[in-house]
Amino acid sequence: MSNARTILVVDDEKQIRRFLRTGLAVHGYDVIEAESGTEALRLAPTKAPDLVVLDLQLGDMDGLDVLRRIREWSWMPVLILSVRDREVEKVKAFEMGADDYITKPFGVAEFVARVNALLRRIPEVAVQPVFSVGDLSIDMARRQVSRDGVEVRLSPKEYALLQHLARHAGKVVTHGQMLNEIWGSDHAEDAHYLRIFMRKLRQKIERDPTQPRYIVTELGIGYRLRVQDQLEALA
After folding, report:
1. Any idea what the CATH number is for the domain that residue 94 is in?
2. What's the predicted TM-score (pTM) here?
3. Residue where one domain finishes, among candidates 91, 126, 161
4. Nearest to 100 by CA among 61, 139, 51
5. Mind spelling out the 3-state secondary structure of the chain?
6. CB 3.0-4.6 Å disulfide test: which of 104, 109, 187, 213 passes with 183?
7. Rounded to the nearest 10 degrees, how much is the dihedral formed by the CA atoms of 185, 186, 188, 194?
């Protein structure tokens, strides 16, 4: 079985896809190709690539719409390729969650260097469409949460909290980060919102909410969603 990392290349120009496939293969990457946004959105959750290379001008939809849909469930690295070179276009892409942006035409050496840099920086847990720990499973592609195989019904805010913690699993996420991400910058000081929804979330996913196994409180700082090895260390 190959240990090569997988890149999903999304571009409606066959010659560009061939050029990128050749350049990436020389450096040991496996490549999956998508010629449309629709195909990319089908392949991204099922193939779970390590990184997505995304053209903004696709035949069936704007690449930013593809980026937005991916960011609903995953923080896998996304490298934008585009002929759009205006600063406003680049800023918009970064604000929507792009990790890097290369303007066409470009050289293969720079492109591969950017791919390598992104894959060094991005935590592996961030690219997985399904996060599991113990009997808790979070399918971020389908926005479904289950415990012991039984679906857990969460409100949109409860799910957003859990998803944000899962994207940073094993690490402490501060109160301010969660408030800004989920409620917006106007509520950065409203920690009572966070306490209320965290209590509701724990009541739904923890067997004993008073002694939580999954979501740990870091006093005065924030919360942490345990990963499997952290959970096993408690046994």
Report:
1. 3.40.50.2300
2. 0.60
3. 126
4. 51
5. CCCCCEEEEECCCHHHHHHHHHHHHHCCCEEEEECCHHHHHHHHHHHCCCEEEEECECCCCEHHHHHHHHHCCCCCCEEEEECCCCHHHHHHHHHCCCCEEEECCCCHHHHHHHHHHHHHHCCHHHHCCEEEECCEEEECCCCEEEECCEEECCCHHHHHHHHHHHHCCCCEEEHHHHHHHHCCHHHCCCHHHHHHHHHHHHHHHCCCCCCCCCEEEECCCEEEECCHHHHHCCC
6. 187
7. -110
Residue-level length of the chain: 235
End position of a domain, from candidates 98, 126, 154: 126
- Residue 193, amino acid: Y
As for how many domains the chain has, the answer is: 2
Domain of residue 192 covers 129-232
Taking residues 101-118, report their average pLDDT: 89
Q: Alpha-carbon distance 160 to 166, whole Å?
A: 10
Higher pLDDT: 121 or 88? It is 88
Both 23 and 71 in one domain: the answer is: yes
**Joined tokens for residue 181:** 């991400």
Identify the CA nearest to 93 among candidates 116, 58, 73, 65: 65
Whether residue 64 contacts residue 92, with contact meaning beta carbons closer than 8 Å, is answered with: yes
Both 71 and 106 in one domain: the answer is: yes
Residues 122 and 142 in one domain: no
Residues 12, 118, single domain; the answer is yes
Q: What is the pLDDT of residue 1?
A: 39
